[in-house]
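Input.
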Amino acid sequence: MPLNINGVEYLSTAQAAERLGVTASTLRTHRSHGTRTQLEMLKLGNVVLYTAASVEREAACRGVGR
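Output.
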């Protein structure tokens, strides 16, 4: 279930990874290596949240869920 902050829906790393068909560690690796990505994120302490809209756009580009 997405978390709503100021009217924007966010997904946890695990939720985003599941929607994209990758593992959470893949997303962490992309962040740590500075891999360019279209995923918009918000870091709160040691928690990283991804905007649901950017995850859905990326999933559509990858053809995930077809």
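The chain has a mean pLDDT of 90.
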